[in-house]
Design the sequence.
């Protein structure tokens, strides 16, 4: 795993919002939920659809296509039709900057 890289400012991802970024050619979704920033891959593990338009609630995001929900902290699939986790990355806050480790 490489070191942490700065990807956005905290102000760009206010509570309850998400922001799509691209790091090294990978689409990463930054999610501000339950007073914490999460970084997950913008790709559902069921049929590889994008998650950025999905509903986000207390620590999870739902795929907008078939409704599978994923735990933002672990990437774990919480309900069918998805069974596999999505990729997540460690997040670190440095001052007002969001850093992730890819
Ligand atoms: S593509 Fe996400 S649940 Fe089917």
Sequence:
């Amino acid at each position: 795993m490489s070191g942490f890289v700065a990807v956005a400012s905290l102000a760009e991802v206010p509570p309850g919002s998400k922001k799509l970024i691209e790091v090294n050619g990978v689409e990463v979704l930054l999610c501000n939920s339950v007073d914490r920033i999460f970084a997950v891959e913008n790709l559902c593990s069921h049929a590889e659809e994008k998650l950025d338009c999905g509903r986000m609630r207390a620590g999870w995001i739902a795929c907008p296509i078939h409704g599978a929900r994923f735990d933002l902290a672990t990437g774990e699939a919480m309900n069918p039709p998805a069974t596999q986790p999505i990729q997540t990355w460690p997040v670190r806050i440095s001052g007002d900057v969001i850093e992730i480790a890819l």
